Amino acid sequence: MDRTAPLSQTQRMALLNLIKERDSIVNNKSTAPGIIEAKKRTWEEIVLKFNALNPDQQPRSSKQLKRSYDHVKRKCLS
Fold first, then answer.
1. N or C: which end of the chain has fewer CB within 10 A?
2. pLDDT (tens digit, 9 = 90+) per residue, 53-76?
3. Which of 29, 28, 26, 27 lies closest to 41, judged by CA?
4. Residue 43 in contact with residue 22, Cβ under 8 Å?
């Protein structure tokens, strides 16, 4: 599997803005089936919008964007 380039500062900000609009779902700690499904749908929506904002880049998966978001959260909390 080829590695994609790291997110630029502009892309990180775009990702954070997309997540901020859906913060109550993305950062919900509940493991209820309805919440898990809502999170999955929300991340799919974030991926579609993020990739639409970056058409010249290789499309990112939800796993890649989640990992980037987790990295940003850890970095900010350090």
1. N
2. 999 999 999 999 999 999 998 887
3. 26
4. no
